[in-house]
Specification:
Blueprint (H helix, E strand, L loop, with lengths): L6 H16 L6 E7 L5 H7 L3 H9 L1 E6 L11 E7 L2 E2 L3 H13 E7 L1 H5 L19 E2 L9 E3 L6 H16 L2 H20 L5 H9 L9 H5 L5 E4 L2 E4 L9 H5 L13 H12 L7
Parallel strand pairs: 1-2, 1-3, 3-5, 5-7
Antiparallel strand pairs: 4-6, 8-9
Helix pairs in contact: 6-7
The protein binds iron/sulfur cluster (SF4) (2 copies).
Length: 283
Amino acid sequence: MGGEAKPAQVAMEKKAEATKEKKPVTNKIKIGHVHMSGCTGCLVSLADNNLGLIKILDDYADLVYCLTLADVRHIPEMDVALVEGSVCLQDHESVEDIKETREKSKIVVALGSCACYGNITRFSRGGQHNQPQHESFLPIGDLIDVDVYIPGCPPSPELIRNVAVMAYLLLEGNEEQKALAGKYLKPLMDLAKRGTSGCFCDLMYDVINQGLCMGCGTCAASCPVHAITLEFGKPQGERDLCIKCGSCYGACPRSFFNLDVIPEFENISEIIAKALKDGESDD
Ligand code: SF4
Ligand code: SF4
């Protein structure tokens, strides 16, 4: 059977060619989702990017590891590992997995407040009674070096998507793209460097006392022990109640606020919008 290609097929080929040319760089990166002890809410948030996620997986990243979505049983080499959940010290397999993830990944991202600070999993005690003070579930930064934090319970789909695009540009982009990606990621890298502790005092020192609080109340809503109340638009903490779970710090949109990045926001938004544009022509 031969013959000329049908018009629809020609149009599809042209569209594919146009899409290919619009990629800012050529190589795909390898991304994995490593599930520790968490509720899977972060993965749901990642999937909530819908078409944006498909676009990323089409053109920018291969999903090489994800127990729920990819049939791969052993942790492979990865450019970016998104780790969800904290690590249960009683589960030796998880402890080994997190160490192997570090060894095999260029960039380790703590995805969500459980991976960053322990969050609500600090209440858990491997199938036993709830024990807020029990520390058998640790944030991943207590066991390995972490490069980037994406806080939130769960983090917003947009934030996860933006980090994926920026990680791609950081690893595969030209010098200008690398510099821009570095600027975007810096506040989230600084959060990772800051460590795994998070309590109301940190929120007080880093956000409220710096005049960055906008009175949104997210911290109060995220506190599992109701240690925070909003009085006249300002959060007040009951320090005796605080179990140092870090939930409020991770949930506060101003805890990773960085004035240095503001002048670059237009540039960054443009680059992300371009990366996610679904094969449409700029013409
Ligand atoms: S104030 Fe509440 S949310 Fe914040 S660290 Fe303490 S217990 Fe966790
Ligand atoms: S979440 Fe942050 S910005 Fe919002 S009220 Fe709490 S401290 Fe202020």
